[in-house]
Amino acid sequence: MHSMNWDNLRILECCARTGSFAKASVELGLSHSSISRRMTQLENDLQTTLLRRTASGISLTDAGAKISAEARDMAVAALAIRNTSEDEGTLKGRIRFETIDASGIGVMPHLKAFCDRHPEVVIDLCLSQTIVDLDRGEADVVLRATNQPPENYVGYKIADHAFGIFGTADLINRYAPGTPLNDLPWVLWSDGWSDDWMAEMGLAPRRIMRVSTANGVLQAMRAGIGIGHMACKSAAQDEKFLCLRKLVPNHRMQLWLLMHESMRRNQRVRTFTRFLRDKLVADRPFFEGERGNVTRPLNIPLT
Which end of the chain is more exposed for a tag (fewer CB within 10 A), N or C? Predict the structure, then answer.
């Protein structure tokens, strides 16, 4: 057997995880034909069949499942090596930080302060609605509201992220005091994230608009399109908003600042995480709904 192209194992792992050459092609930036050719080459190198090709996608043979699992272990090991290899001197290099768009906007002052202190560090901010996979090195640090952080991620619980029902004073004051919430227009999340809460509270408004991102929901509410569920940190400090109702404690989510466990010895990422943790912990009263406009009742104008 001649020398094997180790990069083909990375391609196999991606094919196994995504379930098709087409999806792997998008993720890896390779053509469908290139991936098919590389998998054939790997099968020839190993002298065994790894994949079954069907009209609906691909499936792994027993040998393919075993080798793709070993390929994933190799990828994790390579990530750990990359995460712990760095200079011990002045902080410099790239930090990939991921959070949702509304949170990213909220932490901009803190990111500026870090950049001012460490000018040779480049922050690559990714704003995404779905949490990235730190096992695959898609980010170095994530800020997320979740009650179940992955076990192999380490970091800090920042706060119990409180949510309320907010709307602009201009919109709310167009309705009579005591107007049922169902009679107000609403802005909801496209992915149904708040639908369970709505059902629990017996809410089924007739007029709704759905938006796909957190900041999109916030901006639609701010434009007066409707009221909606929103994190207290995002809405309570905005003078345009009134809070109609704080949600009950079991509707809170934990806010976590997380990194992969292999980042424990990475000075650059560790310094960034501790810096951001201290800034966010100082904001805890806003995250937990204890400061801001969160107690203003319906139809009391802002002064």
Answer: C
- The CA-CA-CA angle for residues 82, 88, 89, to 5°, reads 130
Q: What is the pLDDT of residues 139-148, one digit of tens each?
A: 889 998 888 8
CA distance 131 to 246: 26
For residue 302, the model assigns a pLDDT of: 33
Identity (one letter) of the amino acid at 123?
I
Tell me whether strands 253-260 and 141-145 are parallel, antiparallel or unpaired.
antiparallel
216 pLDDT more than 70: yes
Rounded Cα distance between 16 and 11, Å, is 9
| Closest among 200, 192, 180 to 250, alpha carbons compared | 200
pTM greater than 0.85: no
**What is the rounded distance in angstroms from the CA atom of residue 11 to the CA atom of residue 24?**
8
Helices of type H across the chain = 7-18, 21-28, 32-46, 62-84, 101-106, 108-117, 169-172, 195-200, 214-222, 232-235, 267-282, 284-287
DSSP secondary structure string, 89-158?
SS--EEEEEEE-HHHHHHTHHHHHHHHHH-TTEEEEEEE-SS---GGGTS-SEEEEE-SS--TTEEEEEE
Alpha carbon distance 15, 7 (integer Å): 13
Q: Structure tokens of 215?
A: 């900041």
Phi, psi of 262, rounded to the nearest 5 degrees: -70, -10
Distance separating alpha carbons of residues 77 and 72, to the nearest angstrom: 9
- Residue 295: which pLDDT band, with cuts at 50, 70 and 90? very low
pLDDT digits (tens, 9 = 90+) for 68-87: 888 777 776 665 555 555 54
Among 193, 189, 235, residue whose Cα is nearest residue 208? 189
Angle, CA 267 vertex, CA 13 and CA 277 arms, to 5°: 95
More confident call, 39 vs 291:
39
R_g (Cα) of the chain, nearest Å: 24
